[in-house]
TrEMBL record:
Its cofactor is Zn(2+). One of its GO terms (molecular function) is metallopeptidase activity. It comes from Sphingobacterium zhuxiongii. InterPro entries: MATCAP. This is DUF1704 domain-containing protein. It comes from the Bacteria. Keywords: Hydrolase, Metalloprotease, Protease. One of its GO terms (biological process) is regulation of nitric oxide metabolic process.
Length: 610
């Protein structure tokens, strides 16, 4: 019998002091509290002594866990005082015990419940596992006795748990991640581990909210989640690779203005020849470094998912750059930025039908130069610096770009760029208020990825940037037509049409001025075919739906994120990994609250038409 009084007392003292504790039970297992939480994950290794690697790895993702393998160890004598202490301190304690399913189990995962008060949590867990993956079937079993693995004792009797402060939920899991020879199937094992870890994390916060006198916010304040050295190392490595090339600069022509003049001289019938910056990175070396990163060794499923997602995106982007000017570039673009759905295409067509073509001329005194626009942008930067003195954004007028572009927090303006003064304020909120502010807010986070951009961030980012134009009364019909025409141009390109075919379509069918049509077509055909421009309309439509569902817009300013990352962002906020936005742009100030209410009330891109 293992002497237990002193170590058990040490654990109870650690709970009292809210200090982390790891206790190794010699030749048996270990008890771990990375944080003092009212939740313990328990895995009793079967009598055979064969550990289930997935369940052991799953335990490593939890804040508090108990893994042991000896029937000589009196677990119930330890777990009862510990659970009672946690329940007394937090108002309740949740125990999750897992085991390998017996033959004949119907679903891949069964959630075992014997306490009626635990049923809502069981249903919440079931819903989250289903949401995480369609590859795993899950069901709920209402047991007569307190759940426990076969050939083991109950940790508590049903009578002992009648006070409802201690809740015990069981999980029996089929070993589908092993073949008939008990060899591990690594991809399936990862799917099980990460799906369960994410679902259990959400279950824990729901338990805190409903069953304890704490909530997720209080938990975040009291207990700070620290990133492991490996997470920091991988984040820095991914950031380093990201900074070695600027994708948009590399696929944007150096000679767009000269190409336009030549195209006009050729009477619009000869496709222009675009020149690009030289490739200064070796794709093979970048990919080798990316896949040398040991992301599979990160047990936190959220962080592993983010890093793996970013690595895959960088892999695709570097492949696109090596295929620049070739047919395969377009295939890569479809993988990174997506296609044009029929619904999006029809929305774009409807917008063009609802709006009048742009005017053939504008008053000369309403046009401002690139340098004038740069001055206005610097004034906006000074406004934002009042919120945070560390904020800054270089504003550069350049000869080697087309239009306006934000590059890692710097605003770049083409020397040839001109716009109306009425559009300038809207464009400043688009570029500075959205792209630059989210870059700065992302830099305040402990992970570089939130400033450089999580994979697929462009859709939400561009949607928010376009909506900011509407909030400051700068999203006119001409601008809406351009955003819609980008979708039409991408769709037309994907059908196999040439540069001149798409240019003619925009001029003849949709009455765009030749120079406007050229810029639209150039953006879509650059590099060999870039589908990114369809994301502006798609993004604002998705964002309007998001707002109508009652979600908070301030959360979108955390950094460069995408919509389906929002549950991850909330999870990391609750755990204290991320911090709230450091800067709030002008268009989210009190002055514009009525406009936000108006947007939510309208709820449709078509109702934004003047």
């Amino acid at each position: 019998m293992i002497e237990k009084n002193k170590p058990l007392q040490s654990i109870l003292d650690a709970i009292n002091k809210r200090s982390a504790i790891h206790y190794q039970i010699p030749n048996v297992g270990k008890f771990i509290f990375n944080k003092i939480v009212p939740y313990i994950f328990i895995y009793r290794v079967p009598e055979s002594g064969k550990r289930d690697k997935m369940l052991v790895d799953l335990a490593k993702t939890e804040n508090a866990s108990m893994v042991y393998k000896s029937s000589d160890f009196p677990l119930e004598e330890w777990i009862r005082p510990i659970a009672q202490k946690l329940a007394a301190d937090f108002g309740a304690c949740l125990l999750i015990e897992v085991w390998t399913a017996e033959d004949g189990q119907r679903d891949d995962i069964e959630i075992h419940v014997a306490q009626k008060d635990l049923l809502p949590l069981a249903e919440y867990l079931e819903k989250n596992i289903r949401m995480e993956t369609l590859e795993i079937s899950v069901g709920i079993e209402k047991d007569q006795h307190i759940p426990h693995p076969p050939e083991t004792n109950e940790l508590f009797s049903k009578k002992e748990l009648q006070n409802k402060q201690i809740l015990l939920l069981g999980l029996s899991i089929k070993r589908n991640y092993m073949d008939e020879n008990e060899n591990i199937l690594p991809i399936l094992m990862r799917i099980y581990r990460e799906s369960l870890a994410k679902s259990l994390s959400r279950l824990f916060f729901e338990f805190l909210r409903v069953y304890t006198h704490l909530n997720a916010t209080a938990q975040r304040i009291n207990v700070h989640q620290e990133l492991t050295p490996m997470m920091v190392e991988i984040d820095q490595a991914l950031a380093q690779e990201t900074k070695k090339f600027d994708f948009l600069l590399m696929v944007t022509p150096l000679n767009s203005h000269e190409a336009w003049l030549q195209f006009k001289k050729d009477k619009y019938w000869k496709a222009p020849k675009f020149l690009y910056r030289p490739m200064h990175v070796d794709p093979d070396l970048v990919k080798r470094r990316l896949y040398n990163l040991r992301i599979e060794d990160i047990y936190d499923p959220t962080m592993a998912y983010i890093f793996r997602d970013k690595r895959a995106e960088l892999d695709s982007m570097i492949t696109m750059l090596s295929d620049r000017g070739k047919e395969d570039f377009l295939h890569g673009s479809l993988q990174v930025f997506g296609n044009v759905s029929e619904k999006l295409y029809n929305s774009a067509l409807a917008l063009l039908m609802m709006t009048e073509p742009e005017e053939t001329a504008k008053k000369s005194d309403d046009i401002i130069s690139a340098n004038d626009f740069a001055k206005m942008a610097r004034e906006e930067i000074r406004y934002l610096q009042k919120q945070n003195a560390e904020f800054n954004s270089p504003v550069r007028v350049r000869e080697d770009i087309s239009g306006v572009m934000v590059n890692r927090g710097a605003l770049n303006i083409s020397q040839e760029y001109k716009l109306t003064r009425g559009r300038a304020m809207a464009l400043i909120q688009h570029e500075i208020g959205t792209h630059v502010v989210t870059y700065f807010n992302g830099r305040q986070q402990p992970l570089n990825l939130f400033s450089l951009g999580v994979p697929g961030y462009e859709e939400l980012q561009e949607g928010l940037a376009v909506l900011s134009e509407y909030i400051v009364n700068g999203l006119n019909n001409d601008r809406l037509r351009i955003i819609a025409a980008r979708v039409i141009a991408v769709h037309h390109m994907l059908l196999g049409n040439t540069f001149t075919d798409t240019f003619d379509l925009l001029v003849d069918q949709y009455q765009f001025l030749p120079e406007t049509a050229f810029n639209l077509t150039m953006r879509v055909y650059r590099g060999g075919g870039l589908t990114k421009d369809a994301l502006y309309l798609k993004g604002i439509i998705e964002l309007l739906t998001y707002l109508q569902e009652g979600h908070e817009v301030e959360l979108l300013m955390m950094g460069k994120i995408r919509k389906d990352y929002l549950p991850i962002i909330k999870d990391l906020l609750q755990r204290g990994v991320l911090i709230p936005p450091a800067l709030i742009p002008r268009y989210m100030s009190e002055e514009y609250k009525p406009r936000w209410r108006e947007v939510i009330q309208k709820g449709s891109i078509f109702k934004l038409v003047e």
